[in-house]
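From the methods appendix. Each design record in this collection lists the tokenized structure first, followed by the designed amino acid sequence. Records were kept in a plain field format so they could be parsed without special tools. The example shown here is representative of the layout used throughout.

RECORD:
FOLD TOKENS (275 positions):
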């Protein structure tokens, strides 16, 4: 079948399957299968798909109709100004996390630590914007860490990546101007974990105890030991966790504690200064 007819057919299938942006997704899937990017897909839309391309296409569309995330099917996702490789071992970076990046960049820093780096989305964005900064990132899952390292290479950015549990891979006395983290923060019984494709993402990147606060508690309580005086901690959290997270910041003796809303108007990022 010709590319243009396939495009229309895929769009119709995605639409009837309840996919939100069927036209855009059909285009991205066709680009992936044919290797023809952007306007080339239109220029060559009279070409026929070859049988292997048709097979690939059918298997991708079938998975997408089962709510398997588009980013995993395409193998990459845009975040900030970066193109990042994603696999089933990584959380798919979310636009909400750009709120945290924006707030981190609101002040100058010479050193930054990212805890639970995933694809490297946050720390690579910071390094891109502040090339002179010394950037360290920690990740618990070795397969995830390999993807973060690949993303650093793909984007020609240097970050010191370390494997381990939150602050454990850091040396005693290693301190930073800025610590950032988007840790797992979903409650373990949250029904959303079985919806919207979340069930395909690594549960170790999402779930954090009965109230979703187990990892935030560890990070906030221990951060002062790894911050310079005047340094800042910024964490992402659930839309309904703002008050609980601010309380954890106060308990850990942070000053200037504030919560910032994401583009949807939900409390999303809390930060504080260690004085
Ligand atoms: C919500 S994801 C965030 C990924 C990435 N920072 C982002 O914003 O897209 C949380 C990440 O923390 C990692 N993680 C979970 N527990 C950890 C721990 N104890 N120490 C270090 N990393 C951890 C997960 O494997 C996952 O990659």
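DESIGN:
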């Amino acid at each position: 079948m010709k590319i243009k007819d396939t495009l229309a057919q895929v769009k119709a299938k995605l639409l009837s399957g309840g996919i939100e942006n069927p036209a855009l997704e059909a285009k991205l899937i066709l680009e992936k299968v044919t290797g023809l990017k952007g306007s080339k897909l239109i220029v060559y839309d009279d070409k026929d798909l070859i049988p292997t391309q048709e097979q690939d296409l059918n298997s991708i569309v079938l998975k997408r109709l089962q709510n398997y995330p588009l980013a995993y099917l395409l193998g990459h996702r845009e975040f900030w100004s970066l193109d990042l490789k994603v696999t089933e071992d990584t959380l798919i970076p979310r636009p909400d996390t750009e709120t945290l990046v924006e707030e981190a960049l609101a002040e100058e820093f010479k050193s930054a630590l990212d805890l639970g780096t995933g694809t490297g989305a946050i720390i690579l964005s910071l390094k891109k914007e502040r090339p002179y900064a010394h950037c360290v990132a920690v990740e618990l899952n070795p397969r995830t860490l390999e993807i973060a390292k690949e993303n650093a290479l793909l984007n020609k950015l240097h970050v010191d990546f370390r494997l381990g549990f939150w602050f454990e891979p850091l040396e005693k006395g290693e301190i930073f101007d800025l610590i950032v983290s988007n840790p797992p923060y979903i409650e373990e019984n949250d029904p959303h974990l079985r919806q919207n494709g979340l069930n395909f993402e690594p549960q170790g990147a999402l779930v954090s105890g009965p109230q979703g606060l187990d990892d935030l508690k560890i990070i906030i309580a221990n951060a002062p030991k790894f911050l310079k005086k005047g340094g800042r901690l910024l964490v992402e959290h659930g839309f309904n966790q703002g008050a609980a997270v601010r309380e954890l910041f106060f308990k850990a003796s942070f000053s200037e504690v504030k919560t910032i809303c994401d583009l949807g108007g939900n409390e999303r990022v809390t930060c504080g200064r260690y004085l």
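APPENDIX NOTE: The chain is about 35% helix and 20% strand.
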